[in-house]
DNA sequence: ACATTTTTTTAGATCAATCTAAACTTTTAT
DNA sequence: ATAAAAGTTTAGATTGATCTAAAAAAATGT
């Protein structure tokens, strides 16, 4: 069984490797975990010893099949807990992350099964991110960033790429949430900012950065 | 903020001291936590340094006012989580303890407030133990062990003294649960075992040990 | 009362996770 | 091509939690 710390490293590496596709550099991991490269090297060795990563000195870490499976279980737990916090306890979506970071490490397969059932077997968390199933299978969601959508084409916000609390608060403020209907009315060539209409009612101007982080389905 | 381990020691000491009344010996703590006396001595010193215990060498540990307050917060969290597990996730009452042991260490006052609300501000957990409120106040429950009840007097099971899973399973099997109505039909002088009727229907013979661990209100 | 037993504490070791500083690779720029 | 810069690993230290073994204090029995 993995320690709290090992689970966190594995999850971070899974994320940085974009689902196990690329190798990840020591410094990337160190930065993403706010720790030092030396600590990362130690942990990479440890996780390699457990066959969760493959490791070649000075090259970086690559997640293995079983590492990926374990990472997906942690992500599954994280997203189920976020769903619980928002839907049942009425947390706002920018308050859930830190608590879910702790809850995801609770060890009890029975608990997760029962929680999943209690929530009605959800397939996406409050940020729109897919929830891997018991076997680690990720429901595939076909989405594009709002920045790549066409003018006057109706779309539904399905998720956000990066869920920093400040970003989520900003979205709330301008009336954007998962499930909101958005349509681009105008694109400014100069800075790629957009004017959009939300839920056929309110208009808002959003920057290129925001548009690239908002994922939509059409 | 206390570590996972410090919280566990504090909780154990609170229990062993019967709510902060008595001093507790090193070996008692060691046994109750399945650890060694040497480790206990170290931890007692640490917690004394934080003014959660008062400590005199070779005499034992006494919990302080602020130690009691912290212990009660951990107990509050534990019992709220047990209530959640049984009432919302439909765990059976003998399955909840180990999971609640983990959940009680999650650090988030907001989470506990929201969980409390979600559960409807319960005052007792599934074992009938009182849940301290936000300020550490424990609702007082006036109960006696079934072994001290009179013959032919109706009573309601309100809690169990010690909730070992095997004991709880045994109670389930003979049809006893929190809220069950019990009445003593006959006492055997020889071994103090009892014949009882449960919910005005089924009869059962229970030993003195069991009767001492079953708490009732009349 | 005092020798024996029990309990508790201290001393010193280990393990996981972390760090800093130094050494070592790899990459980059001229 | 090679010197400088950037990135990575190693060596050695630290902290928290734990242990064993030895020393010290308290309790017990005759």
Describe the structure.
The structure is a homodimer of 218-residue chains. Chain A is of the alpha+beta class. The first copy, chain A, is 41% helix and 17% strand. Chain A has eight helices and eight strands. Chain A has helices at residues 4-16, 26-32, 37-49, 65-87, 96-103, 109-118, 165-173, 208-213; strands at 53-56, 60-63, 144-145, 155-160, 181-187, 194-198, 202-206, 214-217. In chain A, a hairpin with a 3-residue loop joins strand 6 and strand 7. In chain A, helix 1 (4-16) crosses helix 4 (65-87). The mean pLDDT of chain A is 92. The A-B interface holds A 85, 88-91, 95, 98-99, 102-103, 106-108, 110-111, 114-115, 118 and B 85, 88-91, 95, 98-99, 102-103, 106-108, 110-111, 114-115, 118. Chain B binds a DNA duplex (30 and 30 nucleotides) through residues 3, 5, 25-27, 35-43, 46, 57-58, 60.
Write the layout of secondary structure elements.
Two copies of one chain form a homodimer.
Chain A: H1 4-16, H2 26-32, H3 37-49, E1 53-56, E2 60-63, H4 65-87, H5 96-103, H6 109-118, E3 144-145, E4 155-160, H7 165-173, E5 181-187, E6 194-198, E7 202-206, H8 208-213, E8 214-217
Antiparallel strand pairs in A: 1-2, 3-8, 4-5, 4-8, 5-6, 6-7
The structure holds a DNA duplex (30 and 30 nucleotides).
What percent strand of chain A? 15-25%
Class by helix and strand content of chain A?
Answer: alpha+beta
Helical content of chain A stands at 40-55%
In whole angstroms, the N-to-C terminal distance of chain A is 42 Å
The low-pLDDT segments of chain A are none
Order of helices and strands of chain A: HHHEEHHHEEHEEEHE
Rg of chain A to the nearest angstrom? 19 Å
- Outline of chain A: globular
What is the tally of helical segments of chain A? 8
Largest sheet of chain A at a glance? 6 strands, antiparallel
Largest interface: A-B, 18 and 18 residues
Q: Strand arrangement, largest sheet of chain A?
A: 3-8-4-5-6-7
What is the average per-residue confidence, as pLDDT of chain A, rounded to a whole number? 92
- DSSP strand count of chain A: 8
* Oligomer category: homodimer
């Amino acid at each position: 069984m993995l320690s709290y710390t090992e689970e966190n490293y594995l999850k971070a590496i899974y994320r940085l490797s974009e689902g196990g596709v690329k190798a990840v550099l020591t410094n990337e991991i160190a930065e993403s975990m706010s720790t030092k490269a030396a600590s990362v090297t130690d942990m990479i060795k440890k996780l390699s010893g457990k066959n969760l990563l493959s490791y070649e000195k000075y090259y970086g870490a690559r997640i293995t099949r079983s590492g990926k499976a374990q990472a997906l279980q942690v992500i599954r737990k994280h997203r189920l807990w976020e769903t619980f916090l928002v839907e049942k306890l009425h947390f706002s979506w920018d308050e859930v992350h830190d608590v879910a970071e702790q809850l995801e490490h609770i060890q009890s397969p029975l608990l997760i099964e029962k929680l999943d059932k209690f929530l009605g077997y959800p397939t996406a968390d409050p940020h729109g991110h897919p929830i891997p199933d018991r076997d680690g299978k990720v429901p595939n969601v076909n989405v594009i960033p709002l920045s790549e959508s066409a003018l006057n084409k109706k779309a539904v916000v399905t998720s956000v790429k990066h869920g920093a609390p400040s970003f989520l608060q900003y979205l709330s403020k301008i009336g954007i949430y998962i499930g909101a209907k958005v349509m681009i009315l105008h694109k400014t060539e100069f800075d790629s900012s957009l004017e959009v209409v939300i839920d056929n009612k309110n208009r808002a101007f959003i920057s290129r950065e925001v548009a690239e982080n908002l994922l939509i389905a059409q």
